[in-house]
Structure formats: C-alpha cells, structure tokens
Design goal:
Length: about 475
C-alpha cells in the first residue's frame, strides 16, 4: 500500500510538470558554430531528458565493464561458499546417521570449499574422525578449535567428552571449569561440573555447582536441595572415616536440614550425636524421621543410643518411638525384632502377624518366623518350612535404583550397577515368576532365575540380572 502511494505521488508530480510546460508554450533558439536551432520548449525538455537517460545508461555500462572481473570473482566465491555450506550440512546429517565415510568425505569437501572459514569445518571434521574411531585426529581438531574465540566453547566440550570416555575425570573436570568460565549459565556445563566434582571427591565444588544450578533455574530448588543433601552426607561420611567428628557433625546437620527424609543422613547424624554424648539430639532427629518415613535403620540407630540397656528395656523404649507411626509395616518389623531379642515370643509373633496382614508374609517375615520357631520351640522342621517359604516370598521393601532397577543391600550415593547419582530409594519391588516374566518380556522359557518388575507409576522396568535377585535375598533387603 505504501509503495503504491509513493508511485502515484511521483506520477502526479511528472504530470504536473508536463501540464505546466504545455500551458506555457514558447520557442527556443540556439546559435552554435554557424548553425541555428529553433524548437519549442517542450521538445527541448524532452531532448534534455533523453540525453540524460542515455548518459546514465552509457555510464552504467562503462562501470559494469570496469567491475566485471571483480563481480565474476565474487560470484565464484559465493558459489563456492554455497557448495561448502551444502557439504557442511550433508556432513552433519551423515554424523547424525552414523555414516562415518560420508561424514569424512563431506568434511574434507567443506574444508576445501570453506578454507577461509575453518571454525565452521573443524567441528564436522572432529566428529567425523570420532565416527571413524580416530580419536587422535578428533583431539587435534578440538584442540585447534580452542584457538578461535568463536569455537573455543565447542572445542572444550569435545575434549571434555573424550576425557570422560577415557575415564580421565581429573582432566574432564579441568575442562568443565574452563567451559564454566566461558559460559557459567549453560545447563550442560553446570551438570558436568557437578557430576565430575562429585565423582572426583571435590564436594565443595559439587555443592557450589548445585547452588548455581538452582540460582539459574537449571535445577529446581527441590532437586538441587536433595542433591546437595546427598553431597553433604558424602562429606560427612568422608570426615567420619578420618575421625573428624566435629566436621562430620557439621556436614550431617546440613544434610539433615536439606533433606529430613534422607534416612542415611538421619542415621549418620544420630550416630555422630551419640558418639559425642548428645543423646537427646539424636533421639529427637530419629523420632522426627520415623514420623515421616519409618525405616528399620532408624529403629536400629535408635536402640543403639543406649547400649547398656537390657533387651526388654529396648522393647519399651522402641515402642515409644514407633508410636509416632504405629500401623506401618516397618513399625511391626522393628517391634518384632526387638521382642525376639528380648525372648518375648508372643509379642514377636503378634507383630509378625500384623506385618503379614497387608500382602502376606514377606521374605523378612518368613525368616523371622523361622528364627522364632527355632528359638521358642526348637522346632527345626517348622523353621525349615519358613526358611523355604522365604526363598519365594515377596520382598517387602528394599533399596531399589530408579534408573536401572537394580537392588542394593544398603544405601549408597551411586547405584552399584549403573553408577547413577542418588537413584536408590526405599520401595517395594515385585518378584515375578517365570511365566509372568516371559509374558512381559515376550521370551521363550529358560532356566534363568525369576526377574523383578519395578512399578514406577508410568512404566514398568524388567530386571533380568541374576545379581539383582541375589542381592534381594540378603537379610537387609528382605
């Protein structure tokens, strides 16, 4: 609309000039070197316009002849870049598809066509070299990328990933620190800085990375707080191994503050309090944790605070703590174990029965029943039957990795199988017999042991590792 309006305005101006000249006729006479030219004003005006147009055309033609070599060279260069960018694009597609030979051919072509822009081709050449298994060449390309400000960040990432694949975590951590200095808010930089710092035992740097992750919204406050609690617990455990009780207590307090439901942090804090003679503080922390998430380790840490007490006194004291959550499975198990140790057979049997009411006798309940039959009546036959039931009974609760589904006999910061960080949680896996396992896995019958099916809410994870079953058979995971 705007362009049309401008066109009509120009046309109106031209018509106005033409009409103005037409309404004012006159003659023009020119005497020049013996010649006399007489014409009207309008014709003279048109002649002047024609002369000006011709002069402009001749000038442009002359300029184009002068600039022809430069324009031809620019056209060739543009065409060369176009083909170079096309080769670069095809090379990236080949890298994504895993076609090593095509990627390398396209990298060489792009490098030749875009020789004046090496930063664009070095990444493709490095990735193509990696696909071919030539890590040395890839390293050279990534190192060369460090020389350019535009590609330094990408070069650092490539070298970092190579170091991680080699297992050289210290070099990877140094590269992550350099990348963090260039781009401190990039998500993968903060994640790598945390993971590598934590893996190499630099817990202070790992904690700082988590703080920055929460500050920049890379991590939610809840997720960052939970991970920080685990890191603080690792610091506490490390200090405890070195007999640095006060430092261990400081880190354990911070872990407990960040994640009051982290059972290992609570038990460690209580144990440290106990060794320092702060029994009331330990008792308070354990009682609070039990009210939120009952766990047998909490019960064991609780009774350990008074080692001089008799078994009967421990039953009474433990009963006070579990009263915060009396109907929980773990409360029944804790009281059953305590009554067994106190030789209060009737109470032990009652609590074991309560523990079985929800979903039948668990593996641990069966073993405790076998122990009860042996110690109360000396009935080895009945005890053997219970122990046999335990081999096929369900696992009530255990430390299960939410990433790979493996079972651990105790909590660790990393899964023992997949090495994922903070993925062990206290949950109830389900043991499937062979027929159901085959149905889920769509496999033919084998002599392999039963598998575990972990219910995660959105999907089911099938675990066929015999080691997972063997781990589940331990007393601590029953």
């Amino acid at each position: 609309m705007k362009r049309a309006l401008i066109y009509f305005i120009k046309l109106a101006l031209v018509l106005t000039v033409v009409i103005w000249i037409a309404n004012r006729p006159g003659t023009v006479s020119v005497d020049w070197i013996g010649y006399r030219l007489e014409t009207t004003v309008g014709v003279l005006f048109l002649g002047a316009v024609a002369l000006a147009v011709s002069a402009a055309f001749i000038y442009r033609f002359w300029r184009s002849m002068i600039n022809a070599p430069a324009l031809f060279g620019q056209a060739r260069q543009d065409n060369r870049k176009k083909r170079g960018y096309k080769a670069l694009t095809h090379g990236m597609v080949a890298v994504a598809a895993g076609e090593a030979q095509t990627a390398m051919a396209m990298a060489r072509k792009a490098e030749a066509l875009l020789s004046d822009e090496p930063p664009l081709t070095m990444l493709l050449s490095a990735q193509a070299s990696q696909l071919q298994g030539n890590e040395e060449a890839a390293t050279n390309y990534f190192t060369a990328m460090l020389e350019s400000k535009e590609t330094k960040f990408l070069g650092l990432r490539g070298l970092l990933m190579q170091a991680q694949r080699r297992g050289d975590l210290k070099i990877a951590l140094e590269l992550a620190r350099q990348a963090h200095a260039l781009s401190p808010k990039t998500p993968w930089v903060l994640e790598s800085l945390f993971e590598l710092s934590e893996a190499t035992g630099d817990f202070a740097s790992a904690d700082q990375a988590l703080k920055e992750g929460a500050k920049t919204k890379v991590l939610s406050n809840a997720d960052a707080g939970r991970k920080r609690a685990v890191v603080k617990l690792e610091q506490a455990l490390s200090a405890g191994d070195k007999d640095q009780e006060q430092e261990a207590l400081t880190h354990a307090k911070e872990a407990y503050k960040l994640a009051p439901d982290l059972v290992p942090a609570v038990t460690f804090l209580a144990g440290t309090y106990g060794r320092l003679g702060k029994t009331k503080d330990a008792e308070k922390a354990l009682r609070k944790a039990w009210s939120k998430q009952p766990h047998r380790d909490l019960a064991r840490a609780y009774v350990a605070l008074w080692p001089a007490e008799s078994a009967v006194e421990r039953v009474r004291r433990l009963g006070q703590m579990v009263s915060k959550n009396p109907d929980h499975y773990e409360s029944h198990i804790a009281l059953a174990e305590a009554n067994l140790s106190a030789k209060l057979w009737g109470e032990a049997r009652r609590y074991l029965k309560l523990a079985s009411e929800e979903s039948g006798p668990s593996r641990l309940v069966c073993r405790l029943m076998g122990r009860l039959e042996t110690e109360e009546h000396g009935d080895t036959r009945a005890a053997a039957e219970w122990f046999e039931k335990a081999e096929t009974a369900l696992i009530a609760h255990n430390w299960v990795c939410s990433s790979c589904g493996a079972i651990a006999d105790s909590w660790q910061a990393h899964c023992g199988d997949c090495r994922s960080f903070d993925t062990l949680s206290w949950k109830r896996p389900t043991v499937l017999r062979e027929e159901k396992a085959l149905e889920v896995n769509n496999q033919k019958p084998t002599s392999a042991p039963p598998v575990l099916l972990e219910h995660t809410g959105e999907h089911e994870v099938i675990i066929t590792k015999p080691t997972a079953i063997e781990g589940a058979a331990r007393d601590v995971g029953a």
